[in-house]
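=== RUN LOG ===
request id: a7f3
mode: sequence -> structure
chains: 1
length: 233
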Amino acid sequence: MRLFVAGSAPLLPETFTRFETVTGHRILERYGMTEAGMITSNPYDGARVAGTMGFPLPDVFARVADQAGSQLPHGEPGVLEIKGPNVFAGYWRMPQKTAEEFRDDGYFITGDVAQIDSDGRISIVGRAKDLIIYGGYNVYPKEVETEIDAIPGIGESAVIGVPHPDFGEAVTAVVTLSGEFEVDEEAVVATLAGKLARFKQPKRVFIVDTLPRNSMGKVQKNVLRDSYKETFG
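=== RESULT ===
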C-alpha cells in the first residue's frame, strides 16, 4: 500500500500516531463535503500534521468568520466559509436556502466550526449546530471530547448539549469503554475537573455500548440529543 487517506470526520491525533507506529505510514487527512467535493488536504509531499485537515486546495479560498460574516483572527474558532470553482451553484429548487447559505461576496457557509493557524492549516472543531451554549458561554464539543478520549479506559466519546432549566443547555457526554480499565461517570468527571474550565465540564456522563452512526460512519449527535433531552427535566 502506498497511501492511506482519512475523511468524513476528524481523526484523533492518538489514532494518527498509533497508525504510524503500527504500519510505518502517515495517514493523509483531508476535508470535503457534498456541496464542494474536496476542499482541503494535508500535502502528499510534506508534513502531515495530526489534528488538521491541511491547506485549501489550489484556487480554493477559506476563511473563518463569526455569525455576521466578519473574518476572525488566526487561531480563533468560527464558522468555516469557502469559495472556489469546486463549490456548487446552489440547492436544487431551493432558492431561499441557497441565499441563506452564501455570503454576498460568494463565500459558502459550510456550517463547520474551524480554526486556521498562522501557517494556514485548517482544523475542524465541530459543527455549528453542535455548539453548546451554557449560561451564555460557548462550549465546543471537540475540545471536551479530546480530553475525555485521552482518559485510560475510554473508547470514544460524543459531547452534546441538552436542555437545562437554569443554564439553557448543559454539557453532556456519552461515552463507550475500551475495556482496558474500569471507568465510571465519577471517574470521568473527576479527571476533567483539572483539565477544563468549570463551564465546559459535563454535568452528566452516560456510558453506552455503542454510539449511533449514519451510513458514512459519523456519530449521529441529533439522535443522542433526542435520547437524552429529558435528562435535566
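=== NOTES ===
The CA atoms of residues 184 and 207 lie 8 Å apart.
Helices lie at 13-23, 95-101, 141-149, 185-193, 221-227.
=== END ===
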